[in-house]
Design goal:
By secondary structure, this protein is an alpha/beta fold. The chain is built from 9 helices and 16 strands. Residues 28-266 form the Aspartate/glutamate/uridylate kinase domain.
Length: 299
């Protein structure tokens, strides 16, 4: 106990300095989309979860919407199939759907376990639970890509209830259509739909790249602030590919529909969320309205 107390006393000054800022953030809802590509190993997962949990402990209301695309692809490969994507969306036949649901369920509970270990209450659900995510079939460029869902309705009450009871909600991107068939939802789509439905203050995408590059092969072309028009132009001109495509589309959708702060961050960087929220310069790419200045919580 003495050791713990000493540690606390060593940090007390920092805490006292930080408190006025922390109090200012109280009760703001932050949706954290935690991508499978930034779940490189258990240690990294634990660190990301620590930061989200810390945000909860200092008064934010975080919600995690997670992916698991890489892990799903691994299992699709294990059963002898070739993972296939169109515009960043997985082509999902019945067998792939089954694998995706199994993998996402496992990822979901592993995140719940990490939060619980830190003494914070977490509830892991998928979009099937309580009618959280209702979908229609989604096409990719007019093409049928199987059981891929487009979120048409979010039952926000469930999330409000969980937040009200002080749980940290952890959501897997699976939904049901009107006939109660299971659908695979791109996790970026799910996070954006949820952020819009609950009027989140902030939506942060944690991925495996520093942010958006003008030239995906050249890290010196990192864009730290991307406005909506430029984002649309980059997509039209073919600078955005693969999994970044749904991310940018959703960033724009979120910004245009009332989410104030939208960011793409490198989830592999230690404390990326905290650096983005609490430092002046911020990190990664901030998506903003055409007229808006970059914002930070500190000053
Ligand atoms: N212009 C771009 N800037 C940054 N990343 C890009 C760009 N175009 C394509 N990408 C790719 O998008 C990937 C991120 O998407 P994805 O792998 O689906 O991540 P997540 O699992 O986090 O959703 C990056 O690793 C990168 O290879
Ligand atoms: C339809 C679709 O693309 N679903 C995604 C769901 C998981 C996901 O989005 O995971 P990441 O965030 O790690 O990419 C998939 O099957 O990969």
């Amino acid at each position: 106990m003495e050791k713990v107390m000493q540690k606390y006393l060593d940090k007390a000054e920092v805490l006292i300095e930080a408190l006025p800022y922390i109090q200012r953030f109280n009760r703001k809802i932050i949706v954290v989309k935690y991508g499978g590509s930034a779940m490189v190993d258990e240690e990294l997962k634990a660190r990301v979860i620590q930061d989200v949990t810390l945000l909860k402990l200092v008064g934010f209301k975080p919600i995690i919407v997670h992916g698991g695309g890489k892990e799903i692809s691994k299992w699709v490969g294990k059963v002898g199939m070739e993972p296939q994507f169109i515009n960043g969306l997985r082509v999902t036949d019945a067998e792939t759907m089954e694998l995706a649901e199994m993998v996402l369920g496992k990822v979901n509970k592993s995140l719940v376990q990490l939060v619980e270990q830190l003494g914070v209450r977490a509830i892991g659900i998928s979009g099937k639970d309580g009618g959280l995510l209702k979908v229609d079939k989604k096409l990719a460029d007019g093409e049928d890509i199987g059981f891929v869902g487009d979120v048409k309705e979010v039952n926000a009450d469930i999330i409000y209830d969980l937040l009200e009871k002080d749980f940290l909600p952890i959501i897997a991107p699976i939904g049901l259509d009107d006939d109660y068939n299971t659908y695979n939802i791109n996790a970026d789509d799910a996070a954006c739909a949820i952020a819009k439905a609950i009027n989140a203050e902030k939506l942060a995408f944690l991925t495996d790249i520093e942010g958006v590059y003008k030239d995906p092969k050249d890290p010196s072309t990192l864009i730290s602030e991307l406005n909506v028009s430029d984002g649309k132009k980059l997509m039209e001109e073919g600078y955005i590919g693969g999994g970044m495509l749904p991310k940018i589309q959703n960033c724009i959708d979120a910004i245009e529909n009332g989410v104030s702060r939208v960011h793409i961050l490198d989830g592999r960087i230690p404390h990326c969320l905290l650096l983005e929220i609490f430092t002046n310069k911020g990190i990664g790419t901030a998506i903003k309205n055409d007229v808006e200045e970059r914002y930070y919580y500190g000053e």
